[in-house]
# Entry
Amino acid sequence: MALPLHPDLPPDLACLKNIDALLQCPICFDFLDISMMTKCSHNFCSLCIRKFLSYKLQCPICNMQMTEQDLRNNRLLDELVVNFKAVRQQLSKANFDSPPISPRT
Amino acid sequence: MALPLHPDLPPDLACLKNIDALLQCPICFDFLDISMMTKCSHNFCSLCIRKFLSYKLQCPICNMQMTEQDLRNNRLLDELVVNFKAVRQQLSKANFDSPPISPRT
Ligand SMILES: [Zn+2]
Ligand SMILES: [Zn+2]
Ligand SMILES: [Zn+2]
Ligand SMILES: [Zn+2]
# Structure
């Protein structure tokens, strides 16, 4: 959960790391891709959780019994991922733009 | 949806406004407080949606028929709200700290 999976975040934007971690899928550790929420309120990529459920009919986090029919799209997370990626990029860009660059001419 | 409800965000952090808007409850327009998700994937504060459902058994956004039993806690949103508020505060603070301050002595 506390893995440095997206180490390109500038050090002074460390405060964004929690949001970064929260928007990661606990199965593939990448940003949630088509988020699905279980009855027990845990979130996974659609493909990741469906693949898992084909082996075992329980939540990978809390082991609650469940089926694919219990999954519910968590669309707001998908929108948050898109916008958070944009914020990251914009803030990182602002950071890289700050230091003076020596001219190449 | 595009209302300037939290106008204290510095202008150069405008990229955070989308996230700001996404984490607002469509009923009270404040940050989501104990987020509940409907079957149709819409999110509201627990109190806001329960009050609404006591009048009308449908989703306030898309009018899909529903009952209180269909609500599901969306805990990740609660964690995102907490962390997003911290990020906002930290980035705003960094902003206010930047300009030179004339000494009072
Ligand atoms: Zn995944
Ligand atoms: Zn679970
Ligand atoms: Zn509300
Ligand atoms: Zn709805």
Summary: The two ends of chain B are 46 Å apart (CA to CA). Strands of chain B lie at 35-37, 43-45, 72-73. Chain B has a mean pLDDT of 85. Helices of chain B lie at 17-22, 46-53, 75-97.
